[in-house]
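A reminder from the course coordinator: this example appears on the midterm review sheet, so study it carefully.

Given structure:
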């Protein structure tokens, strides 16, 4: 009975991606979409049209363009109520900071179950299942923010990562060799972060093999050394991470990818919602954090942090082990099981 219900499940995912907001919301929703589709569900994305430019794999799913009214506040709720993307569905998954309790409750006339992916624990949400896939959060953070009976899944045990991140990289030691450094801040352009990163790398990375993945193509402006590998996009991020001894990256989904694979890193906190989970990971010993918004953040300090980590293999090994202890890369499976169980429980 449960298998038949899963095979007939209809799922709508509300999430956006753009160079301005980045691609983390769509990236983690694609993880859920793949697992739900394997289980037999029919998945439809309700997203901004530009999301398909950043994520061509959205072409694998039914797609409904979201207009401006589907993005924010009360307008999102009114659009969802009057102009839903589907007549009815078993599960609506919302991954958007601009939605709230009112918008989600407005979907009850066509969505049987509602799941919300959240990173902040600061807004009331109309969820049957609430997922915060970040370290530093727990169930008690949502005591007064979700309806009674809501299932809350919080912590890096529920990080939404692709299956290739569930197998950690073997611990490597390159005694006497050149350390390999990967720098990437995600699918967004992140101009401010790169304006600090390029001078830091150019001033301190002469003894490193450097791999840059920068959608904004800042490497064209900073005259990077010809021996550096520079890319605008990367088709296999897991492989790029596995090849690195250390990483300079952001504090979003990519932080949990690094932890799951056991890759030591210097993390730049790119936005306020990344601060709490990234600092929690740092306290755990899984990364070294620096806040882009801090007054004392400089490219010199960033370069010093990278140099210190590059020179100390013992610290890198400890950081890699702690990262794997914090996030095992299997969180998506746990979340999907909870979603399917919730849907199956409804008569």
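Designed residues:
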């Amino acid at each position: 009975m449960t298998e038949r219900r899963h095979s007939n499940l209809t799922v709508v995912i509300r999430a956006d991606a753009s160079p301005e907001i980045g691609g983390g919301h769509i990236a983690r929703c694609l993880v859920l979409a793949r697992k739900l589709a394997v289980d037999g569900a029919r998945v439809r994305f309700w997203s901004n049209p530009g999301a398909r430019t950043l994520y061509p794999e959205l072409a694998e799913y039914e797609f409904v363009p979201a207009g401006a009214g589907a993005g924010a506040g009360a307008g999102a709720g009114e659009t969802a109520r009057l102009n839903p993307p589907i007549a009815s569905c078993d599960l609506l998954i919302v991954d958007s900071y601009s939605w709230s309790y009112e918008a989600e409750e407005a979907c009850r006339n066509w969505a049987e179950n509602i799941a919300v992916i959240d990173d902040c624990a600061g807004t009331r949400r109309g969820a049957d299942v609430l997922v915060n896939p970040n370290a530093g959060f727990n169930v008690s953070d949502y005591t007064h923010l979700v309806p009674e009976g809501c299932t809350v899944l919080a912590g890096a045990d529920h990080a939404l990562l692709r299956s290739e991140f569930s197998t950690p990289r073997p611990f490597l030691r390159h005694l006497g060799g050149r350390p390999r450094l990967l720098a990437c801040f995600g699918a967004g352009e992140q101009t401010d972060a790169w304006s600090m990163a390029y001078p830091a790398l150019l001033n301190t990375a002469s003894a490193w093999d450097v791999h840059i993945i920068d959608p904004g193509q800042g490497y064209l402006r900073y005259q990077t050394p010809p021996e550096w590998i520079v890319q605008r996009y990367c088709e296999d991020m897991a492989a790029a991470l596995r090849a690195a001894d250390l990483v300079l990256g952001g504090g979003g989904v990519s932080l949990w990818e690094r932890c799951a694979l056991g890759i030591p890193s210097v993390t730049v906190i790119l936005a306020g919602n990344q601060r709490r989970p990234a600092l929690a990971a740092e306290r755990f010993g899984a990364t070294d954090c620096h806040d882009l918004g801090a007054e004392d953040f400089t490219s010199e300090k960033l370069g010093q942090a990278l140099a210190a980590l590059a020179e100390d293999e013992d610290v890198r090994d400890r950081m890699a082990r702690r990262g794997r202890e914090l996030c095992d890369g299997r969180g998506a499976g746990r979340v999907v099981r909870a979603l399917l169980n919730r849907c199956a429980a409804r008569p």
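The domain at 165-326 is CATH 3.40.50.2000 (Rossmann fold). The two ends are 12 Å apart (CA to CA).
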